[in-house]
Design a protein that fits this description.
about 350 residues; alpha+beta; 5-stranded antiparallel beta sheet; 10 helices; 12 strands; rod-shaped
């Protein structure tokens, strides 16, 4: 076989291999273009990806697969010029399907040259990157939420540390010479309460990125077992309706719960009952005991107890609500009622009890 025949046989085999590629590769769009950029061959993969039959596109300029914006900026001409100069070019851009929908694609354009170097057209391979782009968008969204969560967490930790500092200042002002052991225990309980709050928010941020709102029931259910240890051998009974509230409200509600139950243990008797109810965009926390109740003419604003002052401040300023210290009607014991408004985007969930 002479050299010419060998060359012709090699060309025939190459053409056959190329035809097999055009017919069997379905995950990528393969097309050949003439020197001006008109489509000369169209693969099965191109038909699947773009939705056009081969007869519909042969002879058309490849630019019809681009967005109007890319056509106006001369993307096709620029890609062909670079391929002629360097042999190939690769880019990512929007492509248009037969139904006018868009998909994000990788486009590789390779110049075809004869042995003498003459340009004989181009091969263009297009692959769909939509899923990758969606994945990258999702990752960026998660990163953005993480950045915001870290900023918010820093803000909340700072605010809660300031609350702890204020509690310590209040306790030391009341006991300037020496701080009773009971006050240390009380401060420890408040720190634990804030730690429970942060633990819940961290878990939520990991699971669904939500760090701005907290389930009131979930928060109190995490806190109440610790308080039950303080109540023992008395029993802490509770019934909780659930609502998602802003994290700031959640922290204040948890601190109030801790303080009111501590006061009921210190001054009351019998079981301690706790109720959280939701109605008409308002929440109400009620804590009841069976002790002697509040003395006649009790005025919380004149009380010297730092615990009472803390409850008042958190309820009125943090929750923007109202607090009442009352005796129970028809039976012994006192009750503390905290009523507070809920934001319009709070969501009532369900009721649970012990």
């Amino acid at each position: 076989m002479n050299v010419q025949n060998e060359d012709e046989e090699q060309i025939r085999r190459d053409a056959l291999h190329f035809r097999l590629l055009m017919r069997n590769i379905v995950d990528y769009a393969i097309m050949t273009l003439d020197n001006e950029g008109r489509i000369t061959e169209w693969s099965i993969g191109a038909q699947n990806l773009f939705g056009h039959e081969e007869a519909e596109v042969v002879g058309k300029h490849v630019a019809f697969l681009l967005t109007e914006e890319d056509i106006q900026t001369g993307e096709t001409e620029a890609a062909q010029a670079q391929a002629r100069e360097t042999g190939r070019t690769e880019s990512e851009r929007w492509q248009i399907r037969r139904d006018d929908s868009r998909f994000w694609a990788s486009v590789i354009l390779t110049a075809l040259r004869a042995r003498d170097g003459a340009l004989e057209g181009y091969v263009q391979i297009v692959s769909n990157l939509t899923e990758r782009q969606q994945y990258l968008t999702m990752i960026e969204g998660l990163n953005d939420r993480l950045r915001r969560a870290m900023t918010e967490t820093h803000h909340r930790v700072k605010n809660n540390l300031q609350q702890v500092s204020a509690m310590i200042d209040m306790a030391t002002m009341e006991n300037p010479e020496s701080l009773p052991v009971g006050e240390f225990k009380r401060l420890s309980a408040h720190v634990r309460t804030l730690a429970t709050m942060h633990d819940l928010l961290t878990k939520q941020a990991k699971e669904d990125g939500d760090y701005a709102f907290v389930s009131a029931r979930t928060l109190l259910e995490k806190l109440l077992p610790y308080l039950q240890q303080e109540v023992s051998p008395r029993r802490l009974r509770f019934q909780l309706e659930d609502v998602r509230i802003p994290a700031r409200q959640g922290a204040s509600l948890a601190l109030i719960t801790n303080e009111v139950i501590s006061n009921a243990l210190k001054h009351g008797a019998g079981d301690v009952e706790l109720f959280l109810t939701i109605w008409d965009k308002r929440g109400r926390l009620a804590v009841l005991d069976s002790g002697p109740g509040f003395p006649s003419g009790f005025d919380p604003r004149k009380a010297t107890s730092t615990g009472i002052e803390l409850i008042e401040n958190l309820a009125r300023y943090d929750l923007a609500g109202d607090v009442r210290f009352e005796n129970r009607i028809g039976q012994s014991g006192g009750q503390v009622l905290i009523t507070f408004p809920l934001p319009t985007d709070s969501l009532f969930l369900e009721r649970t009890g012990d």
